[in-house]
Model the fold of this input.
Amino acid sequence: MMSKRLWLLPIALALAAGGGLMTFRYKDPADVEPPKDDAFSDTLSAGDPGFERAYRPRPFSFPDDFGPHERFRTEWWYFTGNLQTQGRRRFGYELTFFRFALTPHRPASQSAWRTNQLYMAHFALTDAKTGGFFADERFSRAANGLAGARNDRYRVWLYDWKAESRDDVDFPIRLQARSGAFAIDLNLETQDSPVLQGDKGLSQKSAEPGNASYYYSYPRIATNGILTVGGKIHRVTGESWMDREWSTSALAKEQAGWDWFALQLDDKSELMFYRFRRKDGRPDPNSAGAWFLADRSKLPLTEREVVVEVLGYWKSPHSKITYPARWRLSVPGQKLSLEIVPLINDQELNLSYRYWEGAVSVRGRWNGKEIEGKGYVELTGY
Amino acid sequence: MAGLLRRSSRNHLFRHPGQLVLALLGVALGVAVVVAVDLALESAFRSFALAGEAVSGRATHVIGEDEGLDEQLYIRLRVEQGIRNMAPLIRDDVALAPDSDDRYTLYGIDPLIEKDFRAAWQKQSAGGDSGRLLRKLLTEPNGVLIGERTARRLHAAAGDTFLIRTATGLHVLTIIGLIEASDAVAEQLLDKVIVADIATVQELTGLYGRLSRIELMLPEGAEQGPILEKIRRALPENLRITAVETQAQAAREMTEAFSVNLKALGLLSLLVGLFLIYNAMLFLVVQRRGLIGILRALGVTRWEIFGLILREALLLAVIGTLLGTLAGIGIGRFLLPSVSATLSSVYFATGSDTLLIAPEQIFKAVALGIGASLLAVLPPAFEATQVSPAAALARSRLESGSKRMVRLGLGFGLLLIALGLAVIELSESSIRFSLAGIFLLMAGFALLTPAATLGLMQGIGRLVESRSIIGRLPVRLISAEISRTGIAMAALMIAVAATIGMDLMITSFRQTVSDWIRTSLQGDLYVTLTGNPAAPGKAAKNRKLKAAIQALPGVDATSSVLRTSLPAPTGPLPAAVFDLNERSHAGFLLLQQSEAVWERFEQKPTIFVTEAFAYHHRLKLGDTLTLLAPTGPAMYQVLGIYADYSGDRGHIAMSRRQYLRHWPDLGFTGIGVYARREAGITELEKSIRRTLSAGQTLRSARAIYEASMHVFEQTFAITETLRGLAAGIAMIGVFGALTALQLERARQIGILRAIGLTPAQLYRLIATETGLMGLCAGLFALPVGCLVAYELIFVIYRRAFGWTMAFHFHPEMLLYGLLLAFGAALLAGLWPARKMARINPAEALRME
Done:
């Protein structure tokens, strides 16, 4: 008979049965509340001169600029939107794809898994009626078809979460994400061209040259589709906002975080403003934004032109972090004053990277006339 | 009055401190042996189960067979089907280069899978610097993680490099970080493991496009069904998804079978313990008969005395049980390393050296100690309190009463034996019931012991009729005091019978396995090939190697085997695929076979199955077995059933020609080399070694035989230890019983001395008596031991493993058993004999 390991066979069998099952997993009872994993922010901390940076404005060309810019370190495809059912039940959603380059250049390998590009996606749903908020995340490398983005047509995906042009190269775009009993399947349609943020699309984040991003937006996209909350399906319509931004920038040392406002007003104008918060509490001159008027003209906003007052706070029961939860954003030069109120307070994404991002209602006055709106606010670094 | 009673009782105990100590010793030892064996076994098994849990981690299901799978399946499941909580995994055996035989396992993982499903070490490694670690894992060329123990082994730290050899050649690996194991089990599991990103592992091994398997963590309950269905629909035909429990179940069944031995010993210890306790407590009452008679004569009521005895017995039982439990824990701690070592050597590392004490085990010990004590005390206490005070004072009454008990024991013993045999016969494949049957059988024989002793003594009595009184006296003494001698002998008998039974069983097993290995190894040299069977070009390389070996001068023929698994409707079945030559046919010990077996084995869709496989799958010669070939179900006729002791689950044997008709060539896991008669094996070994590369080892048939027998001995080492322990404790118990017996008959001895027996004669008298008791117990143990061996070999082992063993009878074993019993009893009788012989007759008479 053949080369038998005889009595050694039970060992081999046991190893095949046991060793077969990933030998280094074990339950850790102390692991109830996992420590915050800074994996993604940490991967970005190392400065590398090989990355491209945004120094000066550049022309945008499509569909190329729908796709990834892998020589830049960070990039995102950011969808947020306020939706409602026929019965006027309000929902908010966020679906974001982040791209991170670990190194400036894609390494060569015969392995389809080898890459320097990582993707992270966040999916969140806000249910204004029940006060429910749901958020989940995904990670993957951009290799072997697991995740990635294309530059021949609009398509960005991570596993089965995706934002993808339905048939043409751009709109209509279909957004799909599902996590357990929560899901969206939305159709986004617009005839508009993108608006360029900052200086012709160059958005300076600090005084340092190159610490800037390329940034364009579709600030108002008609949206309809299906939204599943807790297993219940709702047919919804509303408006979404899409941001595309890529950079090799990081927060400057003195910057603690930012508050970002993306507001869709009912006079068909949209206002975007990001406010950097400095660790010393002083105003940061790099805060900026723009007001895109109904006639599509752009009104750039600087830090000195915009006043943001915090009217109320909310302390997260999950993280015990206190976030501002009500603002008055005014542009005195334009006689614009808006009061911004979250749909619900608890829209904190307790994910690997924790932040607050939520649907808001807007009500105020412009030139003495009442004005209303909806939007999304993002709070980081709290 | 009650206080006075208690005082009288206490005074009696204090006046006989020897007996008090012996009673406590008896209870304590009985409890200790049970607790020790129980705890050691349970701890070993429990930590084994814990290790099993750690191994399977959080995965609930696994996709993937031996040959691995196409990585695109994973992508499809993730992207198209949206299946969550999946981990792609690639593993390969690598050698620590340059020319070490030291094997390491290389795992390729995706560190970016769902956090809930990620290995714990990923979260806690590198002191929270997991981002940096992740970045390095993905970007550092040949960057790997190793466990701390592996690092010590390599004398390396983070940042160092080391060399490995894979199928694609030599590679320098950089240690980018150390994995911290949170406990001993994890540390053990991480030993000799190298972890890297999946891309790195593919680059190192050349397994591009392949995965070894996909692990999944599916939700429990109602949600699982639809997901499972979705996955099943997406799987190609040759792959299936298996629940981890099914895999763990297989491992558990293996250890279950192994544990049969140890459980049998646990039962034996329980039996011995019971008898020891019974013996100790019985003495307590029997000695008190005089006192009871006096108390009764003084007007104390029966129930007062009955209560007194019970209270006292309870007190002693509680103290004895407490001491016994503590001693048992101590002995268990001492036993555990060898129990775990056996489990580790045969199955896999358990890394257990802490005794796990469960409340139910302690409860068992307490119930045993106190229950058996009360049970032992009740009948004599009842008897002593029921008779008239005068009768209680007379010993003869007790002994004639115990003659009745002996007859009762005989009847009850026969009943238990019949019941035991019936239980074994009817228990079918339940090992637990079979063992319970053995327990009943032995208990039955133990009850027979006093009757058998009486019979034997009558015989011997007749033989020594003509001899002097000194010659007749020991025989008469044993018969006359059967109430005490009988129980000590029963305990001794059981210990010896179990020793004989286990010895016979192990020897038979060893002989059978040794014969089988010798027959199986028809070749002269064997090459073992490891590595991932899915590696590209492995099959071709293996075939080339076989051809190269075949072409060497001095090689007469070669054969090959591929150990793999073949899909069947019930799940994958272990299989060995053989390419045989004329000479290798003789290596199969076909227990049952059909006509023209070898030709049909090659040409027709037929298989051989091992005996264990046939047993577990209820297959007979001529039955058909369905396997799931890629083209659809295929039927295979069972052409022969052959002996194989290499595993307790068994496997299928199929010819390579038949295998290749349906399944892809995965190369070989072994090549057998048959030398020409005139060829020098050493020369041949050298020239074959030159053709081998990393991961291929060459061993001679002789070396394999020796290694196999070494593992066999390791497996049974613990059995020996436990048996020794049980026998040892039985000896101490017998010693205690005999000592108590001698101490108790001080008055008798006083009389004997008074009527003129010299101390030397007395010494001889007692020594003869105890020696005779030992001999009796030994004689009786012989048939009982053989019967136990028979049941173990032909019933229990067959049920546990599906193996048939030849019964190898060793006369010297019986002699050894006899000597053991005789020696132990004689030794136990020496000290009391000396003490009694020295006693002053007047003093001895006064003592009563």
Chain A touches chain B through 64 residues (CB under 8 Å). The radius of gyration of chain A is 23 Å. Residues 9-17 of chain A form the longest helix (9 residues). The longest strand of chain A covers residues 212-229.
